[in-house]
Amino acid sequence: xxxxxxxxxxxxxxxxxxxxxxxKALRNPDVYxxxxxxxxxxxxxIEDSLRILxxxxxxxxxxxxxxxxxxxxxxxxxxxxxxxxxxxxxxGKVSAMCGEAAFQCVIKVxxxxxxxxxxxxxxxxxxxxxxNLAGHHYSGHTEIYADYTHTKKYAMMLAGDDLRVVHMxxxxxxxxxxxxxxxxxxxxxxxxxxxxxxQLGIEHPKVGVCGLNPHAGENGLFxxxxxKEIIPAIEQAKSEGIDVDGPLPADTAFSKARGGWYDVLVxxxxxxxxxxxxxxxxxxxxxxxxWGAVEGVNITLxxxxxxxxxxxxxxxxxxxxxxxxxLSLLNSIQYxxxxxxxxxxx
Length: 346
Fold this sequence. Notes:
CATH architecture of the largest domain: 3-Layer(aba) Sandwich
Mean pLDDT: 93
Order of helices and strands: EHHEHEEHEHHEEHHEHEHEHEEEEH
Largest sheet: 12 strands, mixed
Number of domains: 2
Radius of gyration: 20 Å
Distance between the termini: 16 Å
Shape: globular
Helix content: 25-40%
CATH class of the largest domain: Alpha Beta
Number of helices: 12
CATH topology of the largest domain: Isopropylmalate Dehydrogenase
Strand content: 15-25%
């Protein structure tokens, strides 16, 4: 790819921090050096974010097609969808209107990517309750992307700094997550993890696989899922030429990954991967009583298009105040750009 990739960024739930973060990120000159970004959302929300940030110099270019975008620092290109009735709008409030707005942004950016109009998609956070109030019954972005791209085999990857994790399962009960720890799914996630690292420019990835049980089962003492399902998947992956190790006791695997032993870890359920990533990436300043950093990204692997998201919520409690940290969105744009440039690497 000779040109900078075109990145479509959804504004997220308008009652949350997404519009504000979009403005903050797209005022950063480094973004325009690596990609051509624009926002999919409602111009009224971007205008209101400029008001909140007391920004009178940044311009808005309202567009109805990607061809109309300028991709210039100092001007934010916004693919306008008439979504928000400002007379009924309130920051920090869960509503069907805002859920519908967030949902429409997502399916529009998916459509653009599927048609080849853009090279990658980046999503700001939405509120799951709000989109369900709007009649769209999904548990998250990942499931929407899988549905609208007709993808059956996919996985979530979280990444922050040099720590990356691929999830066997996410938004399901712990009981169901244990039941889903099967060889076929383990192997699928190992393959996706290996491929994702290559698309991030890691030539020879080292994949680690966490165990499901304490101490990775201790040779069957604490459970036999490792013996029956996880080890056979690892052996199969090795036969395919993947450099993979495990099952690893999860209580030490993340320290090893941070130390460079592994480029990516396959984890067995939502919290096994989310907790260590967010302990490292979400830094709260006790003295200032605010978040000093909110870092990390969420990537959906296995899709025919590229999707990277911020790894935080809508921050309803602080929305509309101009105080949110855009670091996770900047990380997401960087990751989306890298995936777009290396998407053909096998």
